Amino acid sequence: MVKRIGVLTSGGDAPGMNAAIRAVTRVALNSGIEVFGIYDGYKGMVEGYIEPLTKASVGEIVDRGGTILGSARLPEFKDVEVRAKAVTQLKKRGIEAVVVIGGDGSYRGALALTEMGINCIGIPGTIDNDIVCTDFTIGFDTALTTVVEAIDKLRDTSNSHHRCSIVEVMGNRCGDLALWSGIACGAEIVITSDTGFEESEVLERLRDLDLIKKKRHAIVVISEKITDVHQFAKKVSLNTGFSGRATILGHVQRGGAPTPSDRILASRMGEKAVDLLMQGIGGQCISIRENQIVSVPIEEALVMPRTSRKPLQNLFERLV
Ligand SMILES: Nc1ncnc2c1ncn2[C@@H]1O[C@H](COP(=O)(O)OP(=O)(O)O)[C@@H](O)[C@H]1O
Ligand SMILES: O=P(O)(O)OC[C@H]1O[C@](O)(COP(=O)(O)O)[C@@H](O)[C@@H]1O
Ligand SMILES: [Mg+2]
User: Which of 172, 173, 248 to mutate to test the pocket of ligand 2 (most atoms within 8 A of CB)?
Assistant: First the structure.
């Protein structure tokens, strides 16, 4: 059975990554497996920034945002020679397998390492919820909570001033943070890569909300990377009865204490990852599907079609 494993966090950080590190470490140590923390993602793996983890060293982190191991992006990890250096660093320390907590990019690295003889298991840690094989990623619920708190506040001031608040949220081409927060906040309009963006049509809908529906405010939640929200806010002021104001929530969405749901999800996924490594399995990633923790081959996970968001979009439209 595997005797020594490593754990790392990679890509954009997400609240709940620490709870996952803690779960991996404690479940492994309680099963007689030594655990090493690999700092700064694949960068630390290549450079040998690797230290043993103890039960105490992962204490008092279950409630902390960010990642105690640090995270990084290392595009060079796509090169086989760079990964060979990482494998040498792991072998030097007797580390036979690694739990990779990150997003789709990190999964590609984990698969490539598995093919080089280091069994890797992926755990989905990203606020974007853009890993299609899992219903939810670790960090999404916390980021959603942050977005909802912010929009609730924006609604207060927008209402006082007869304004249209355009709120840009993260998601890296995945519209889930926008759609879920739009439903939770009772937004008037949600714009994502699924809905598309027809500027003139949105302006028309805003005029209707103002003139016909007599709304005192309008909240437009829009995914990042769709349009320049400050420019759009100016057009709202020029072309509708609302004055437009844009707010880009930005990296505030990535921080903060993880919600209980994210802590529990991280703990369940961490346990499953260690169990798979104990069975000598690699090249898989952990998912939650219909509240069951399951594993999926990374190769399959990366090409799976995304579950349609149409029912939730329809629900949103029926609530306006
Ligand atoms: N095709 C790939 N092969 C090997 N490693 C990769 C590949 N794609 C991404 N990575 C590694 O994973 C890291 C994180 O990926 P990135 O897409 O930035 O974040 P995320 O994992 O959150 O999606 C990259 O910086 C790189 O080190
Ligand atoms: O922190 P950076 O490098 O500005 O990246 C921002 C991107 O990272 C994210 O916050 C998280 O993305 P990943 O989990 O894929 O790294 C995206 O929502 C956003 O587009
Ligand atoms: Mg990603």
Answer: 172
CA pair distance 251, 178, nearest whole angstrom: 15
Q: Name every residue whose Cβ is closer than 8 Å to that of residue 183 and which is 6 or more positions away in sequence.
A: 312, 315, 316, 319
Residue type, 281: I
Prediction pTM value: 0.97
Residue 140 C-alpha to ligand 3 middle, in angstroms? 13
* 137 labeled part of a ligand binding site: no
Token representation of residue 50: 């690797």
CA-proximal residue: ligand 1, atom 18 (nearest): 11
Question: How many C-beta neighbours within 10 Å does residue 132 have?
Answer: 17
CA torsion through residues 240, 244, 246, 247, sign: negative
> Which ligand 2 atom sits nearest the alpha carbon of residue 139?
14
Taking the CA of 122 as reference, the closest ligand is 1
Look up residue 11 and give its DSSP letter.
S
- What average pLDDT score do residues 308-314 get? 97
Say how far residue 10 (Cα) sits from the centre of its chain.
Answer: 11
Segment 29-43, tens digit of pLDDT: 999 999 999 999 999
How large is the ipTM? 0.97
Tell me the per-residue pLDDT of 80-127, one tens digit each, with 9 for 90 and over: 999 999 999 999 999 999 999 999 999 999 999 999 999 999 999 999
Joined together, the tokens standing for residue 292 give 């069951």
Atom from ligand 1 closest to the CA of residue 103: 21
